[in-house]
Every structure is written in structure tokens, then in C-alpha cells.
Amino acid sequence: MSKTSKLRDIWYSLSSNQRFFIRRLYYLPKDTLDSITGKRHRYVAPRGYIYTGSPASAEDYLKQGRHQLEMLKQYANLQPDHSVLDIGSGIGRTAIALTSYLNENGSYEGFDVVERGVQWCNSRIHKEHANFKFKYVPLFNDLYNTATLKASEFIFPYADKTIDVAFSFSVFTHMQIEEIQHYFNQVYRVLKPGGVCFSTFFLYDEVSEEYISKKKDFSFPVKKNGYRLMNENVKSGNIAIQKNKLFQMLSQEHFEQVKIIDGFWKDEVRDTAKKEYQDIVVFKKS
Ligand SMILES: C[S@@+](CC[C@H](N)C(=O)[O-])C[C@H]1O[C@@H](n2cnc3c(N)ncnc32)[C@H](O)[C@@H]1O
Fold first, then answer.
1. What angle do CA 160, 161, 165 make, to 5 degrees?
2. CA–CA separation, 187 and 197 (whole Å)
3. In the chain, fewer beta carbons within 10 Å around the N or the C end?
4. Which domain holds residue 167?
5. pLDDT tens-digit series, residues 242-263
6. What CA–CA distance (Å, rounded) separates 239 from 223?
7. Whole-number mean pLDDT of the chain?
8. In this structure, what CATH number is given to the domain that contains residue 158?
9. Residue 27 lies in a domain
10. Which amino acid residue places its CA nearest to atom 6 of ligand 1?
11. Are strands 163-168 and 83-87 parallel, antiparallel or unpaired?
12. Which of 259, 239, 233, 235 is nearest to 247 (CA)?
């Protein structure tokens, strides 16, 4: 096991509150400096609050969000007057970029299982953009919280056929397989006919399976039926799904026109033609 994998296992063995506290402390000097030098942006949380991946400077965080917006425009044909649903809205990375894109006929709904993130978004983004709404839903995720409700039974709090584009950036990489299946069912229900879902995943096939099971620093050693886990004890730590399994899961919910844009996370030798790290999957409701 590589040093990075060992460190990740130790990190995963801590509670979500312990991880939050350590992150806050670790980034405190940089966050304080940013504050003094005026490098904070009013919509971007301090690095120590950014629990959704690598904490970035405000400038980088805004850039990442703009990149996510470009992907939604390119692959999901997102338009300024669309109603969008952000599944796992985090601390607003995509929402911030969308505030400069959606017009007054467009609307944004986001939900997440981490209350701190939702509170941040409501206090910063919703406050200035009434058509941006964020909901906290207390669903259990063993990487992020100690809530008790089950994501596999959660009914999205949105009416049928009301969403043009649903999306999730790096969320179906942190959920359990039966939860993902249930979320596909809910996405289908809330999408308008012709509506599109854009999501990122870690996907593999028979060619890449062996490599990803042992890959240095980022491997999925735990084999399950049609998917693999990074850590048996933290089931939402990271999940990789077999492509055929994903097709079955989507067709079970009647999704059509499934398009996969492979990412380079699983390349033994990086294919430089691939731009994104994770795999993108775009699927449509007829
Ligand atoms: C890697 S972060 C990505 C956040 C955001 N999409 C972004 O791009 O910044 C994954 C997010 O998924 C959220 N999450 C995990 N399980 C969830 C669930 N069952 N429903 C909704 N969100 C969930 C986490 O709280 C976290 O905010």
C-alpha cells in the first residue's frame, strides 16, 4: 500500500467532525492571510471549510466552478432560462458560476447532506439570488456525516417533470450502489420530458479493472457485484462502477441516450486527448 493510500485510510477512519476540525486548523494560517490581504471572495468559503475535495484559493475555486459550468453547457446544453437541480451542492462551487449564467427565468435548486455547506450557500448565495435555493437533507453518508435517514429512501423534494437539467459533480462517486439506483429513479421523476442529467463517476470495464484494483495511490481493491470500493469500512469513501452495470441501472429507470465521456483517472498511461479526470455520463429522459 502506498503512503498516500495509508494516509487516506487514516483520514477516513476519523469522524467527519474530527476531519472538519483538523482541516480548519491546518488551513487557519492561509485563511487568515487571505483575509488580511483581501484575497477572500464573498461567495467562496475559507479553505478550511472546503470539505469537498482539495481546498483551493478563492481564485482557483471560482475557476473550477466556471469549468463545471462550461461542461454543463457543452454536454447538457444548459441554457440561461433552465431550471436546474444540483445533487450534492457542497459549498456552492457550481452554484457560484451559475449565478452569472442563469437569467431571471432560470432557477437553481441544490441539496446536500452536510449542513455547514448548505448554510454557507444560503447565507452567501441565496441571500443575493432569490432564485437560488439550497436544502439541507439529513441523510446518512459514512464519509460526510452521522445523520440517520437513508438516501436509498429519500424522495427528492421537487415536483414531477419540473427540471430541465439535473447534475452531480463527484457525488455518485461517494454514494452506495442502492442509493445511486434510487437517485436515478428520483432524477427521472423530476426531469421534464427531454430533460438531461449530467453526472461524474469512476467507471471501469474488463480492460481497466485489474489496473484500478491495484493502482498506486488511488485504487479500488474491494470487489463487489458490478462495482468496487476503495475502503470496505467507509463505503462512501469512493466507489467505482462497472460500465455495464451502470447501463443496466440507467435502463432500469428508463433512461435513454446514455453517453459516456471517459476521464483519465483510470489510464495506465495518460491519454492526453482526455480532458477530465472523472468519467462523465450524460443521460436523457425521452
Ligand atoms: C466531492 S463533493 C462535491 C460537491 C459539489 N458537487 C462540488 O462539485 O463542489 C460530494 C458532495 O456530495 C454530498 N453528498 C454525499 N452523499 C449525498 C447524498 N446522498 N445526497 C446528496 N448529496 C450527497 C457531500 O456532502 C458532498 O457535498
1. 120
2. 8
3. C
4. 57-284
5. 999 999 999 999 998 899 999 9
6. 10
7. 95
8. 3.40.50.150
9. no
10. 169
11. parallel
12. 259
Say what the pLDDT of residue 199 is. Answer: 98
| 170 Rama class: left (phi>0) / alpha (psi -120 to 50) / beta | left
Ligand 1 pocket, 114 CB below 6 A?
yes
| Spatial CB neighbours of 112, under 8 Å, sequence gap ≥ 6 | 88, 89, 90, 118, 134, 135, 136, 137
Report whether residue 113 contacts ligand 1, using a CB cutoff of 6 Å: yes
Number of domains in the chain: 1
Residue 3 has pLDDT above 90, yes or no: no
Residue 32 falls within a domain, yes or no? Answer: no
- Asked whether the beta carbons of 88 and 171 are under 8 A apart, the reply is yes
* Cell 485510510 sits on residue: 9
121: Cβ below 6 Å to ligand 1? no
151 lines ligand 1 (CB under 6 A): yes
Would you say residue 3 lies in a domain? no
Q: For residue 13, tell me if it sits in a domain.
A: no
